[in-house]
Amino acid sequence: MSRRRFLTVLAGTGAAGALGVGMARHGFGSPTPAVRRTGTTPGGPLVLVALYGGNDGLNTVVPYEDSHYLAARGTLGYGAHEVLPVGDGLGLHPNLKGLKGLWDAGHLAIVRGVGYPDPVLSHFRSMAIWQSASPAAEVSTGWVGRWMDATGSDPLRAVSVGPTLPLLASGDKTAAAAVPAGPVGLPAGPGLKAAFAAMSRAPAGAGLGPLGARVVQSGSDLLEVQAVVSEALAAEPSTSLGNTNSLDGGGTTGAGAPPSGSSKPPGAPASAAGNPLATQLDLVGRLIKAGVPTRIYMVSLGGFDTHSAEKDTHAHLLSQLDQAVAGFLSDVGTHQHGRGTVVATFSEFGRRVAANASAGTDHGTAAPLFVAGQPVKGGFYGEQPSLAALDEGNLEFTTDFRSVYATLLGPLLGYDPDAALSGRFPTLPLV
Amino acid sequence: MLSVAGTDPWADVAHLYRRAGFGGRPDELEAAAAAGYEATVERLLGSTGADTGLGGLADPVLTAPRLGELADPAARQALQQQLARERQELSTWWLARMASATNPFPEKRTLFWHGHFATSIEKVRIPLLMYRQNQLLRSQGDGDFHALTLAVAQDPAMLIWLDAASDRKDSPNENFARELMELFTLGTGNYTEDDVRAGARAFTGWRLDRRDYSFAFDAADHDDGMKTFLGHTGDLSGEDVIDIVTHHPASPRWVASRVWSHFAYPTDPSDPVLDELVAAYTPELSLSALFRALFLHPEFRGDRARSGLVKQPIEYVVGAVRVLAPDLLGPQSATPADGPGRLLSGVLAQLGQVPFDPPNVGGWPQNGYWLTTASSLARLRFATSLVRRADLSAVEDAPSSGRVEATARLLGISQWSDPTSSALSQVAGDPRSLVALALASPEYVLN
Do B349 and A123 touch (CB under 8 A)? Predict the structure, then answer.
């Protein structure tokens, strides 16, 4: 989307404060003091993929040569003839063919043993820890939300796909824009859009209290976001990586709806048969190619809580993950606005080393995560946790997850991570 | 929009109907205003016997599957499809109850308990079990809290959800013991990890008998050793633990704070506004006394309460349907292949709140959580779609200059703010646009 069209769109919605404010709000003005940019920004935008339920790291990056793994997993494990070897005695799950291609091209970083001290095995709290980046104290903001608080008030700097916002995207003063995976057009009644815009300009003190003011604010944010997003989507047709119309009651819940403890059975109804992650990434890809200046996107895939009958379910999920991510990076990677795109996965925990009595695994602790994209220096980061020295059946973490965030905010996006993370964490040399 | 309690009886009962129900129709509010606020509270709290509005609504017929017997993949797949159909039927049934009940409070109260003892069909998977839990919450939701908590603890859906049925003597499962204290009865800070571990030991032996999906107790798998739990020592059983937590000194303030937070405005257990609720509730853990104290509390009708809650998606959708298209989900519509039911379920999914599917055991967050750009869009789309099937005669029949006011009365709003009123006037010539915009107004989005 050309810069001139972008400015025209802002003027058309009647956004208060004229074009000058619009330019600053959308990143065309000078950086605020909280932004410390490096000379050239190596990369971005960043796409965070939340895997809800607790992804089984040991069956994702498989230590297939480790006798402890084979003994603990039995038929739930994978052997040398099945995995996609990546060195160090490790192999990717057989369904991760696209990620293997990225590994071979030098653009996939496998960060091993990621976790935090005193791990919590509750979905609810551990996912909140990963999203708030605060293992010690419960806070009500996410690290992306706090990044937004520090870098200005434009809701489009970070975009979450789905109807509700994850904790990740919520700051004290501001929150990411929530964009639905489905149609974004405003319903057009005669004069309705203009009247809605008038209603959404109401000053905060209209006697409605702070919540009423927030309702009004979300209306004006909607108009701004919708104008930009629908213009962008009109310019960039869908590449149909998934079901683009599938925000129905099925699985396309997006980044803000953590289905804790869920594992959709094989043979789930047809409405959920598409690849919900691919649907979300299709939207993200179109926004990136249209030149929307968003820096962080948030998407998700659920169903990883594989307490029973894990093998098929997990294989299906990894297949969806692989197709969606590899397809997305391949699509945006050739585009001028998309070359710097980086995808990073995370999950609330890994799973127990030993299989349980129901051909599945219980909640665990440390697990590997992926960081992929052209700016990424492929390879292993972090130590592989020992399968011999377990902590009550679980892996000990070797890499603090906040180091990953610091690396993504700092070296990748060019911001000072301190505002978002409390404390300094050593970054990883993966960009 | 904000009026002092007692000076505007119509506004008082409109607020009561929003909070104790899903909003009132003009005829309901006129009758309630005439009867008086206190009398209306008693009527909402005290109805017994069958609800006249639900006369034609049949309970769903749901399957008790025996998955273990289905070795054949084709039979298993057929079962999954059957369960998916039943899941939609169950959801439509409850939405129909909420929209059609003459007295909405039992349904609103059940929705509250569903969010409190939040259990998700995503893990439970069997609609029949979610249905039974729903009926349990409805029938015991205004009795005594100890009995309700014990019944919920032994409810099959809950046993599956919090893994209580996999709590074994040699590897106790802490999930249920923790959430019982943290979320259901005490709140954080009132127990220790030692209490969680002791509680888990007490619940060992609890089982789900999958032959008929009933609660069972396996004595051989129960740890009957001595335990110290919240200061009580003995060979405590799961029933003992439930007794202890519901009678714990910190419990009444916790329960009262959850009720106040969801019916008035979010607050924490130390808030003095809860004192009267706690006093009414404590002697017998009486939930009906608690709810009565809530609705009669002067602060319940105060400014802070009136502007303190955003409508949850279920409240927003059901409320609009009750007022504008009450026949949409009427008894005759609640069939398994139900178009309107599926449509509304789709809207609720877009808004982020699906019945029987809370995001986690903490239930649904409140207020700001519902105010995203995506949900604003979803509300606007729902509103413009609903007005096409709605009875708008109350607005259409009014002269153009009186339609903005007529819309307020129709939607139970006592007064529009100036910016909203001015915006609504722009579309007063087209009743559908007017009502759709009104449904997107901050006055209506707030509860």
Answer: no
Chain A hits for B368, CB-CB cut-off 8 Å, are 170, 175, 211, 214
Domains of chain A: 45-185+227-419 (3.40.720)
Instruction: Tell me the C-alpha distance between B48 and A285, whole Å.
Output: 56
B220: number of Cβ within 10 Å? 6
Helix (H, G, I), strand (E, B) or coil at B68: helix
**Residue numbers in B near A195 (CB within 8 A):** 423-424, 426-427, 433, 437
Distance, in Å, from the CA atom of A238 to the CA atom of A61, rounded to the nearest integer, reads: 32
CB A356 within 8 A of CB A389: no
Distance CA A20, CA A293 (A): 16
If you ran DSSP here, which 8-state letter would residue A207 be given? S
- A267 touching chain B per CB within 8 A: yes
Whole-model pTM: value is: 0.83
Per-position b or e across A25-53, b if 16+ CB within 10 A of its CB: bbeeeeeeeeeeeeeeebbbbbbbbbbbb
The beta-carbon neighbor of A189 closest among B308, B370, B384 is B384
Band (pLDDT 50/70/90 cuts) for residue A12 is: very low
Looking at every residue in chain B, the average pLDDT score rounds to: 91
Cβ atoms < 10 Å from Cβ of B115: 19
Tokens 């005695």 sit on residue: A89
A256 within 8 A of A165, measured Cβ to Cβ: yes
List the helix and strand counts (H, then E) for chain A.
Answer: 11, 12
**Residue A80: CB atoms within 10 Å:** 11
B395 to chain A, closest Cα gap in Å: 17
Which residues have CB under 8 Å from A371's CB, separation 6+? A108, A109, A111, A342, A343, A344, A404, A408, A430
Nearest to A267 among B77, B122, B359 (CB): B77
Q: From the centroid of its chain, how far is CA A138?
A: 21
Chain A nearest-CA distance from B243, in A, is 25
* Cβ atoms of A299 and A282 closer than 8 Å: no
CA atoms within 13 A of residue A173's CA, in its CB half-sphere? 9
Where are the domains positioned within chain B?
Answer: 308-445
Residues forming a β-bridge with B233: B228
What was the pLDDT predicted at A172? Answer: 82
Backbone region of residue B224 per phi and psi (left: phi > 0; alpha: psi in -120 to 50; beta: other values): alpha
CA gap B124, B160 in Å, rounded: 6
> In whole angstroms, how large is the CA radius of gyration of chain B?
23
Residue B189's CB is within 10 A of a number of other CB atoms, namely 9
Alpha-carbon distance B374 to nearest alpha carbon in chain A (angstroms): 5
Within 10 Å of residue B365's Cβ, how many Cβ atoms? 19
Please give the average per-residue pLDDT across A320-332, as a whole number.
97
What the block records as the tokens of A163 is 């109807």
Q: How far out from the chain centre does Cα B8 lie?
A: 28
pLDDT confidence band for B68 (50 / 70 / 90): low
Give the span between the Cα atoms of A177 and A283, in whole angstroms.
14
Residue B418, CB-side half-sphere exposure with 13 Å CA sphere = 6
For A258, the closest chain B residue by CA position comes to B359
**Dist. CA A50–CA A142, nearest whole Å:** 13
Q: Which long-range contacts (CB under 8 A, 24 or more apart) does A204-208 make?
A: A206/B417, A206/B418, A206/B419, A206/B420, A207/B1, A207/B2, A207/B417, A208/B1, A208/B307, A208/B417, A208/B442, A208/B443, A208/B446
Q: What is the distance between the alpha carbons of residues B64 and B131, in angstroms, rounded to a whole number?
A: 11
What pLDDT is recorded for position A261? 33
Query: What one-character-per-residue DSSP string does B77-136 give?
Result: HHHHHHHHHHHHHHHHHHHHHHHH-SS-HHHHHHHHHHHHT---HHHH--HHHHHHHHHH
CB A428 within 8 A of CB A110: no
